[in-house]
């Protein structure tokens, strides 16, 4: 973790470090378990930039700037305390990363969907709910969080101890829940069909352009032949 923090301070960017490590993990040159603390350290080291910028602020705004920088530091540090010291929490984070990698490897389009959901759509939804006040945010957020915990627990028990679950929950296929609610396969079929249609349209339009070009070339050649004979 200290290595990640120091390297991030030196290059002044955690994105550079994580972007350099990601392909190494994908190639199998470095184990995910070794990269995990380095990435956490990088998230801690990136707060140094904000602290340095806050310390050179104007006298009128230095207090607010330092507060913001310290908030950034404490937020990232609290994330490390939540996901690193306790072994089960490390297991959850690493398992989630592996599951995400396997999902994206099987459904490449899911990476774009995940980025849009995690960094655009969900923040906008949370922001809109926050405008309604704590009651509105809690009324929507608590059921969603409980549902996610329930689904995560069922998925875990399906892999580790399926006999502990009722028969209908031992397999999502037998649960009677519509497939689009527990599988990405229907969306993958829809995405592939859409891509195939788009590719066919582009191919047909390209063929039409080429055909028009050939006809124009033949017409020009005929005109040239007529003029030459005259």
UniProtKB/TrEMBL annotation:
GO cellular component, one term: apical plasma membrane
Membrane topology, from the record: Multi-pass membrane protein
Annotated GO MF terms: sodium:phosphate symporter activity
Compartment list: Apical cell membrane
Transmembrane segment boundaries: 35-56, 68-86, 106-129, 136-157
InterPro entries assigned: Na/Pi_transpt (IPR003841)
Pfam families in the cross-refs: Na_Pi_cotrans
Main localization (coarse): membrane
Single biological process term from Gene Ontology: sodium-dependent phosphate transport
Keywords: Cell membrane, Membrane, Transmembrane, Transmembrane helix
Family: Belongs to the SLC34A transporter family.
UniProt-recorded name of the protein: Sodium-dependent phosphate transport protein 2a
Higher taxonomy: Eukaryota, Metazoa, Spiralia, Lophotrochozoa, Mollusca
């Amino acid at each position: 973790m200290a290595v990640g923090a120091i390297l991030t301070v030196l290059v002044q960017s955690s994105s550079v470090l994580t972007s350099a490590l990601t392909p190494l993990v994908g190639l199998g040159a470095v184990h995910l378990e070794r990269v995990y603390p380095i990435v956490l350290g990088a998230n801690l080291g990136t707060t140094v930039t904000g602290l340095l910028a806050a310390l050179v602020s104007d006298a009128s705004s230095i207090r607010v700037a330092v507060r913001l920088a310290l908030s950034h530091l404490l937020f990232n540090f609290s994330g490390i305390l939540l996901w690193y010291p306790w072994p089960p929490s490390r297991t959850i984070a690493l398992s989630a990363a592996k599951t995400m990698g396997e999902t994206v490897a099987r459904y490449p389009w899911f990476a774009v969907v995940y980025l849009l959901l995690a960094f655009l759509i969900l923040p906008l939804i949370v922001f809109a709910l926050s405008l309604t006040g704590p009651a509105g945010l809690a009324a929507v957020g608590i059921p969603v969080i409980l549902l996610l915990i329930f689904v995560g627990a069922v998925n875990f028990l399906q892999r580790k101890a399926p006999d502990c679950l009722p028969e209908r929950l031992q397999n999502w296929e037998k649960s009677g829940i519509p497939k689009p609610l527990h599988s990405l396969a229907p969306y993958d079929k829809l995405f592939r069909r859409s891509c195939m249609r788009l590719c066919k349209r582009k191919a047909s339009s390209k063929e039409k352009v080429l055909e028009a070009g050939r006809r124009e070339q033949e017409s020009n050649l005929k005109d040239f032949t007529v003029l030459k004979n005259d």
